[in-house]
Structures are given as structure tokens and as C-alpha cells.
Write a structure and sequence with these properties.
It is a single chain. With 172 residues, the chain is an alpha/beta fold. It contains seven helices and six strands, in the order E-H-E-E-E-H-H-E-E-H-H-H-H. The chain has one domain: Pyruvate-ferredoxin Oxidoreductase, domain 3 (3-Layer(aba) Sandwich). 44% of the residues lie in helices and 22% in strands. Strands 2-3-1-4-5-6 form a six-stranded mixed beta sheet. Helix 4 packs across helix 5, helix 4 crosses helix 7 and helix 6 runs antiparallel to helix 7.
Amino acid sequence: MIQIKIGGWAGQGVVLSGIILSTAFSNVLEKNVVMTRSYTAAVRSGITSADVIVDDNEIYDLNAHEPDVLIIMYQKTFDKYIGMVKAAKYVIVDSTLVKDIPSDLKNIYSVKASEIAENISSPKISNMVLLGKYVAITKHLTIDALEEAVKLSVSKKFIDDDLKALRSGFYS
């Protein structure tokens, strides 16, 4: 079983990231997947998260209570999930926005996702950079499976930049 929690600020593409990972695991790799999302009460702002659980067997839980992987897009989210950060095997952070990281943590993988995304077209695709980094680090998926999931999940007008961002994260 793989448990993944993606956390960020509303509007950063957290839920879309969860959808893309779910699509890659379920449609492309034919795994069983559960995905849930969580929003704060605020409209258009506040912490949001997506949990993705993957297994070959049936899944009986809805939330990633002990995630193997955290993908963190915002400092307040990092701070909120610090207990999970310490326990997770992989913590992938957008180091453009997450700067206050305790130096004793050895499971942190930083990528300047927002900066890389801005150089491609917009910081709004930083989620794609982080997904590319996720695949490069964990090897849970291939980059081809993730690219296929993007093609199945995003509007055609965004596919080229999203794929470029995925590859940038993968090779960063």
C-alpha cells in the first residue's frame, strides 16, 4: 500500500494533483485507488489537501493517516503536517514557498517548483513540477504513466506546459 498526502493553499492545484496521481495509478497501472480531498471553510483561500491511497488489494480507508509521501506546496501546510513530515519516507517541498524546514530532517526533497513553473509559463503549474519530482524520487510510477494521466485529466490547452513542467520536475 502507498499513502500520499498532497498539501497546499487553495488554488495551487492540490486537488488536480490528486486526480492526476489517482488516474495514473488506476487507469494507467490498473491499481485500486481511493482519493479524498479536504478544503478549509474559507472560499478561495486556506489550506487544502488531497489524499491518495493505492494498493493491489481492496482499500478500506479514505484518508492517508500515515502517509509514505507528502507533497507540500506551502509553508503553513508544512507546519500543519509537521508530525506527518517527520514520519514520512519522502517529503517533497516547493522550496520557493516552503523555507522554514528543520535542519535535522533527512527525508526532505526540495525543488524550486514555483520558480521552475514561472520560467515555463506560470507558477500555477508548480504542482506539475512537484509531481515530476515525486516520480523521480519514489519510482512509484514511470514518467510515461504520469504523462498519460495528465493527458487524460487536463484541458488540451494546458497539456504542453503541464508536460514540460512534469519533465522539469523529473529531471531537476
